[in-house]
Amino acid sequence: MNLPNKITTFRMACVFVIVFLLLFPWAQCGIVMPEIFNGVSLEYFISFFIFIIASFSDFLDGHIARKYNLVTTYGKFMDPIADKLLVDSLLIILASSHMETKIPLIVVVIMIARDLVVDAVKLIAASKNKIVAANIWGKLKTVAQMVAISFVLLNDFPFSYFDGPVNISVILCYIAGLFSLLSMVVYIIQNKEVFKDEKSN
To answer: Is residue 165 over pLDDT 90?
Structure first.
């Protein structure tokens, strides 16, 4: 297993650690997690740092694989799965979190639906031996997701220390949702040719 594949596998392991930390019934087991700051308990604080490391690894494994020509079938298969598990798991967990700052359910639906649609487009394109190119909206979506999830894990810190009528982290979630929606529309428009049936001679 080469280095990019090891990094991808590491990111997958991070997902299971984060899910365990956030969903394990600590209180029911008599374990009281200390509050670090701003209503953020230890498991959320640790999950934030693991999420940052895992998100950076997403960039790192792809960069190394392309630069040193280490692209493998394992990497092509596992990399998108690790990415989606990391983001989608946190979207669902943070939408039902006990903290004051939560990801709006409509944003979760939009982001997961977008991934399903884009994956379907790629699958159809692959069946016709066509490549679906990435677009800037997809990259902006990824960055916006990571930023929004990070601030939600920290319960809107540091914005929570400023009195205001709105929750900045929730606004960031809606922005990420908007980028997700736009990237989906762009993917469909740019690849509309793959939906056309090939005429038989």
So the answer is: no
Q: What is the percent of the chain where pLDDT is above 90?
A: 60
Q: Is the pTM of this model over 0.85?
A: yes
Residue 9's H or E segment, with its range, is: helix 3-23
- Domain encompassing residue 15: 3-195
201 belongs to a structural domain: no
Query: Which residue in 60, 53, 52 sits closest to 3, CA to CA?
Result: 60
Residue in the block written with tokens 């956030």 = 22
135: domain CATH number is: 1.20.120.1760
Instruction: Evaluate whether 198 touches 128 at the Cβ level (below 8 Å).
Output: yes
Domain count, the chain: 1
Residue 200 lies in a domain: no
Q: Cβ neighbours of residue 65 under 8 Å, at least 6 residues apart? A: 2, 4, 71, 72, 75
